[in-house]
Amino acid sequence: MIKNLQDTTTLHNGVKMPWIGLGVFKVPNDDTIHSVSAAIKNGYRSIDTAAVYENEEGVGTGIREGLKAAGISREELFVTSKVWNADLGYEKTLEAFNTSLTKLGLDYLDLYLIHWPVEGKYKGSWKALETLYKEGKIKAIGVSNFQIHHLQNLMENAEIKPMVNQVELHPRLSQKELHAFCKQHHIQLEAWSPLMQGQLLDNSTLQEIGTKYKKSVAQVILRWDLQNGIVIIPKSTKEHRIIENSTIFDFELSADDMKQIDRLNENHRVGPDPDNFDF
């Protein structure tokens, strides 16, 4: 059982990745600084950003402030960023990585992901990630929004298989087949938008389960993720929500409640379809 915010899953290359992180999707730089600093101060050890979020500078400042406030070292933090679609291809990905590193003010990244599986472009980027990984500039490499056929296509001639696949995942889009495939290949599944951008907070089933455990709907959903072995990066700009999202270690959902939540699946996305998304 996962016991606290510092607990980790071990990726297939031996790198330890926290089960819970802070997501900062499209959060403005000033708000990002506060959110990241508050998260680290309150025990978070993983921060997830991306070039297209346009807040890597804010993340970097927030990290420095947070590390100072928490009295911990950079090595205790797990930082993720992603290469955007416009920068796919070998050389452009190398350039994009260096740009992200500069904006973040870091010497290395713990995880770097290909943001979307743009057809015909992601294999070149993967070669770039393999190069950066071998050079020690990234501790782990992975992908985002890859479906089974994308992963199969990538791994046909990849030298190193992805360590992480970050996808949209929540009770309305449980991605069970993809999860099973990733487990089979020792690829850690990670959920973005685990709360479905707030669209599940008034769901009666989840509210009833929350009442039973004296927990919020958000806490119930995040607990469901963890019990399914899925890494989560809930987004919030409010410190009390950041704390609430992490207060999920003092209860465990029953098998029946897990099944109830599983039955909410409708294969419904709030984000783009990975098979039909370019820019």
Automatic annotation (TrEMBL):
Q: Which PROSITE patterns match?
A: ALDOKETO_REDUCTASE_1, ALDOKETO_REDUCTASE_2, ALDOKETO_REDUCTASE_3
> Is NADP set as a keyword in this record?
yes
Q: Does the keyword Nuclease apply?
A: no
Q: Which Pfam families match?
A: Aldo_ket_red
Give all residue intervals belonging to the NADP-dependent oxidoreductase domain.
Answer: 26-266
CDD domains attached here?
AKR_AKR5G1-3
What keywords tag this UniProt record?
Answer: NADP, Oxidoreductase
Q: What family is this?
A: Belongs to the aldo/keto reductase family.
UniProt xrefs under PANTHER family: 2,5-DIKETO-D-GLUCONIC ACID REDUCTASE (PTHR43827), NADP-DEPENDENT OXIDOREDUCTASE DOMAIN-CONTAINING PROTEIN (PTHR43827:SF3)
Listed name of the protein: Aldo/keto reductase
